[in-house]
Amino acid sequence: MLRLLEILIAHHATTPEKQAERELKDLRIDLFQAEQDLIDAQIRSGYYRARLAFIEEVRKKGIDVVSDQRRSRSEELREEP
Question: Which DSSP letter does residue 13 get?
Fold first, then answer.
């Protein structure tokens, strides 16, 4: 019985290879999450750049001019097939 326990423990013991494999999986997950965070940050920065450009344009030209320009651009895009 003791020999069976020794074999069982030896079989399930954490080896450096098993630890490395588990760490590799964890690191891949961490890398994926970091890449997702980077993509999210790029999307957010693009949003704020566009918003900033819009506000600056409104400040320089006035809301009526900017609104008319944006409306005409969106109508042109709708007309193109």
Answer: S
